[in-house]
Amino acid sequence: MLNLRPVKLMPVREQAAASLREAIISQSIKQGEMLTLESTAKALGISVTPVREAFQILARDGLIELAQNRGAVVLGMSPKNIREHYEIRAALEAEACRLVCEKGADLSEIERCVSHLVSSGAENYGDLNQSFHYNIWLASGNTRLVNMLSELWNGLSMGLRTTKNEYARKSQAEHEVIFSMLKASDADGASRAMRGHILRSMEDMLTRYK
Amino acid sequence: MLNLRPVKLMPVREQAAASLREAIISQSIKQGEMLTLESTAKALGISVTPVREAFQILARDGLIELAQNRGAVVLGMSPKNIREHYEIRAALEAEACRLVCEKGADLSEIERCVSHLVSSGAENYGDLNQSFHYNIWLASGNTRLVNMLSELWNGLSMGLRTTKNEYARKSQAEHEVIFSMLKASDADGASRAMRGHILRSMEDMLTRYK
DNA sequence: ATGAGAAAAATTGTATCCATTCTTGCCCAT
DNA sequence: ATGGGCAAGAATGGATACAATTTTTCTCAT
Predict the structure, then answer these.
(1) Which helix (H) or strand (E) holds B74?
(2) Which of A83, A149, B73, B157 is 20 to 30 Å apart from A209, CA to CA?
(3) Which pTM was predicted?
(4) Could you state, in chain order, the average pLDDT of each consecutive group of 10 residues for chain B (210 residues)?
(5) Taking CB atoms and an 8 Å cutoff, what residues of chain A touch B142?
């Protein structure tokens, strides 16, 4: 039998949401712009039904705002926006670290990410960074926490991802500290380290954005 | 002109979601039951489009699960479910306390809730308890955090709310401790106290459910 | 100019229709 | 008798058309 990539991987509403998300984050759709159902559907080559659902997904991710009978306005990055995003992520990821320690979860995947991050250069730092965080979420054993953090990661604030070497080095060092504390099952230390890591990333993002 | 209550307060999809939420939490729709679009739409007296959107809201709240092309199954309370809910809430509400302290927010509304909780009996404890927590979220100044916690509060685990006097007393004492730490701007203390308060509530819920 | 009111445009909800997919149950071959 | 496969049925996912409401804009009379 032929081995072909399936035509349909996800529901159309999610493809639409992904496409719009990318456009908003890359700022090819500008802040404050008004999205109408019909024009968006036409631009995506689909009907309005899945577009309506995609709008709700994006609203949940904080990329657009839905007003009663008035449609969707594209939200932009703002300092307040960034702050809110990172404050929540700091709390949740710190909790994930705490849970990993308390449950004595398997750390092999996390370790793999840390060492990969060491060996490879900074060019694909973004993916490795995400893997490191994601595997911690997974190891926490709280599937709902994984869902919430995944949604946050899709949000606006993660849009402008840095590839600067300087940032990658600093971040890598912090990842190693976090991992060592996880390995030592130091719940307080690991969660505090993760919290600090994320809040410092927030400051980086804020200054870069400003 | 006549002064009448508007017939339509919220979008139909949200009314539908609210109606289904209530039915699921009160267990008039049982765990594991399969909800079909058509029958649900007929039962609610609306068409299927807003029902589909309501299903997605409920799935986000963790009350149902949507399977590809197979509809919605009603989820039940499980220990894992409860744990995940409270772990996340503990992290977020502790963060809210931290933010309240760091930002030096206005505490008057929160104080009002604490003293109301003192003066009135335990009969309307549920509402007062919610007000206390809600006003802390608000005072954090993080609107996204408010949204996320509101969604969590709508979830399954909050369904069986206790009115037992014993619990209300214990909880009230903890609320007072939390408030005093907020007033002293002790971010670490307040967040730790809130965290403990919620995790203890979790234990109560787990033993009661078991 | 200003304000009332009509007209246009967009969302929200309704009603069908079709394609795809998942389940179920039956039939048949072994 | 049992297990695999096939067909029928049901339900979702999406498309399309339309009615109803609301918002915005534009016009026109005062």
Answers:
(1) strand B71-74
(2) A149
(3) 0.88
(4) 55 92 90 93 94 94 89 89 94 98 92 75 72 95 94 74 69 93 96 96 85
(5) 83-84, 87-88
